[in-house]
Amino acid sequence: MWGEHAAFQALLHSEEVKEVEWLNKDEEQRLPYDIVARTTGANPRQLFYEVKSTVSPTLKVLNLSVAEVEAARRYGAAYYFVVVRYDKRLKTAKMVFLKNWMKASVTLQLPLPQAIHFLHK
């Protein structure tokens, strides 16, 4: 839940999205995404965010459900995996938004990022 909260806060402060809704804020909804937002601008779009979080400094791959993979295929560039890694020692979190990863990936394993990147464009 802390990773979802961090991603929600980041999206709330983004100039590229509005109307951010954290679907699991009160209770797990069992959907293949945790957050839904709408973009700003002349052609607003709906975006879907599935958050994966870890405190492990050595975790190299993420497990994805069939529903998450299907949602990534269905929504394409409107579907993001948000990976949040919390460093207990430094008490900081690093976050990356992975957009349209199905086009670039041949496996269902995603390496965890090392820096913050917002890839909405």
Commentary on this structure:
This protein is 21% helix and 31% strand. A hairpin with a 6-residue loop joins strand 2 (35-39) and strand 3. The protein is built from three helices and five strands, in the order αβββαββα. It is an alpha+beta fold. It has helices spanning 2-12, 66-75, 101-104; strands at 17-22, 35-39, 46-54, 79-87, 92-99. A five-stranded mixed beta sheet has the order 1-2-3-4-5. The protein has one domain: Trna Endonuclease, Chain: A, domain 1 (3-Layer(aba) Sandwich), CATH 3.40.1350.
What number of domains? 1
What is the count of helical runs? 3
* Computed CA radius of gyration, to the nearest angstrom: 14 Å
Order of strands across the main sheet: 1-2-3-4-5
The portion of residues forming beta strands comes to 25-35%
Gap from first CA to last CA: 26 Å
**Uncertain regions: pLDDT < 50 for 5+ in a row?**
105-121
Which word captures the global form? Answer: globular
Largest beta-sheet characterization: 5 strands, mixed
